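To whoever is on call:

I kicked off a structure prediction for a single chain this morning and the downstream step that reads the tokens threw a length-mismatch warning. I double-checked the sequence; it's 163 residues and nothing unusual in it as far as I can see. Pasting both halves so you can look.
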Amino acid sequence: MSDIRSLMTQQFENEIARTRQVLDVVTDAVLDYQASPTMRSVRWNVSHLVDVPSWAEIILKADEFDVAPPDGPPHETPEMATVADAMKALDKNVAEARTALADFDVQSLDADWSLKAGGQTLMTTSRYETFQMFEISHVAHHRGHLLVYLRMNGVETPLLYGG
């Protein structure tokens, strides 16, 4: 891989493949499991993992994302009713992310990108770092939560990194 677009695309595809491996063992029966009242449910983690790829276009083509804009409704993770619904949404969001990866301006990767809430800046980093943070690291983070919850429910989970 000689160029940054190819590298980013390959990293994204690798994370999506690992996420699919995990989602493939989730059943509707465990979706409402919640390890404690202060933690998110399996359903929320599945829904969030499916939603994050939809952020790729915002990260790669906009300069900011306000999760609770002062003049509009807040971003909410769409709740998936079933695992089948989640897989359909993942397919759609991944297709849109692939399109964004294929045609974004590579020269913009060093540009600042900001995450906001209610018009207030929560963080500003380069577009490239933001993509890595959310589309790679954040996905792995929530996939880890999901794997723990599945194991707590006796679900045999896949080996994602060899073994």
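Update from on-call: the warning came from a stale cache, not from the record. Cleared it. Sanity check on the structure: Helices lie at 4-23, 42-51, 55-61, 83-103, 127-152.
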